[in-house]
Write a structure and sequence with these properties.
Length: 135
C-alpha cells in the first residue's frame, strides 16, 4: 500500500460523510500492520457533541474487527467535499491514536496539491498513555 493509494481511499471515504450541520466532509483511510485498510467518515449529530470524526470512525471499525497494530492514516476534507488545505486531526482523535499507535505512526494530511506527513510523536508530544497509569 502506497501513501498515494491511501490518500485516494481517504478521498473516497469523504464521500460517505454525514454532515447536515457543518457541510464539512472528512474522510480517513487507516492502514493496519497486516495491510488491511479501514475507511472512515465524519458522522455528525443534532446535539453536536456526539459527532464522530472520520479518523475515529476508521479506528473504531478496525478495533471492532480485532485490529491492534497500525501503520498510518490519510485524512482529507473540505466544505462540501472540496479539498483546499491540509488540516491536522483534532485532539480527541490524536488521543485515540495514542491508545493504539506507537510514536512512529504516520499521519498523511491531504491538501489540494498533495499531502504532508507527520508522525504521532510530532503532533502529540508529551502525551498521556497506558504506561503512565502506575500504581
Ligand atoms: N472533523 C473530522 O472528521 N476530523 C478532524 O480531524 C477534524 C474535524 C469533522 C468533525 C465535524 O463533523 C467537521 O469535521 C467540522 O468540525
Amino acid at each position: 500500500m502506497t501513501a498515494e493509494k491511501l490518500v485516494e481511499l481517504a478521498k473516497e471515504a469523504m464521500t460517505h460523510a454525514y454532515v447536515p450541520y457543518s457541510g464539512y466532509k472528512v474522510g480517513a483511510a487507516l492502514l493496519c500492520a497486516d495491510g488491511t485498510v479501514y475507511q472512515g467518515c465524519n458522522i455528525e449529530n443534532a446535539a453536536y457533541g456526539p459527532t464522530n470524526c472520520a479518523e475515529r470512525t476508521a479506528f473504531f471499525k478496525a478495533v471492532y474487527d480485532g485490529q491492534r497494530e497500525f501503520t498510518s492514516i490519510a485524512v482529507c476534507g473540505g466544505k462540501d467535499g472540496v479539498i483546499t488545505g491540509a488540516f491536522p486531526p483534532c485532539g480527541v482523535c490524536r488521543q485515540v491514536m495514542r491508545e493504539f499507535c506507537r510514536d512512529d505512526f504516520v499521519i498523511y494530511m491531504v491538501g489540494a496539491e498533495g499531502y504532508e506527513a507527520h508522525t504521532l510523536a510530532e503532533i502529540l508530544p508529551f502525551s498521556f498513555s497506558a504506561g503512565d497509569m502506575k500504581e
